[in-house]
Amino acid sequence: MTRKYLNLHDFNDLARRRLPRAIYRYIEGGSEEGASLRSNREAFDRLRFMPRTLVDVSARSTAVTTLGTDWAAPIGIAPMGGLGLAAFQADLALATAAGKARIPYVLSTSSLVAMERVLRANPAAWFQAYLSTERLENERFLTRIGQAGFETLMITVDVPVAGNREENERNGFISPMTPSLRLAIDGASHPRWLITTLLRSLLSEGLPHFVNLPGVPVPAFSTGRVRQRPHGRDDLCWDDLKRMRDQWPHRLLLKGVLAPQDMAAARVAGVDGVIVSNHGGRQLDGALAPLCALPEVVAAAGAVPVLLDGGVRRGTDVLKAMALGAAHVFVGRPFAYAAVAGGVDGVLRAIDILRAEISADMAMLGCVGLNQVGAHLIRPERA
Question: Which of 190, 209, 231, 279 is catalytic?
Answer without folding.
Answer: 279
